[in-house]
Write a structure and sequence with these properties.
Elements lengths: L3 E7 L5 E8 L7 H22 L4 E8 L2 E7 L11 E5 L1
Protein name: Putative trafficking protein particle complex subunit 2
Pfam family, one: Sedlin_N
InterPro entries: Longin-like_dom_sf (IPR011012), Sedlin (IPR006722)
Length: 90
């Protein structure tokens, strides 16, 4: 089974600052837009969970069809000037 993953780093203002897609699956024409849509749909859940748990890895935060959103929250989210999420969509 061919798989692919999209890694996105999101800034404090919910702005994607880095995006990389890795894997062997054929790339869809609308993959970038689909990943952005899934990312923004999951951000509210991520922001709520980030403040209610001490875990840095949030597994299966959201799902969209066969895609699963997992998130790494950096320790900097407690600072006023550093709030980054590393999002994995696969």
């Amino acid at each position: 089974m061919a798989t692919t993953a999209c890694f996105i780093i999101v800034s404090r203002n919910d702005i994607p600052i880095y995006e990389a897609e890795v894997g062997v699956a054929a790339k869809r024409e609308d993959a970038a837009q689909l990943h952005q849509f899934i990312l923004h749909a999951a951000l509210d859940v991520v922001q709520d969970l980030a403040w209610t748990t001490s875990a840095m890895y949030l597994k299966s935060v959201d799902r969209f069809n066969e895609l699963v959103v997992s998130v790494y929250v950096t320790a900097g989210h407690i600072l006023l000037d550093g709030n980054y999420f590393i999002v994995e969509i696969n």
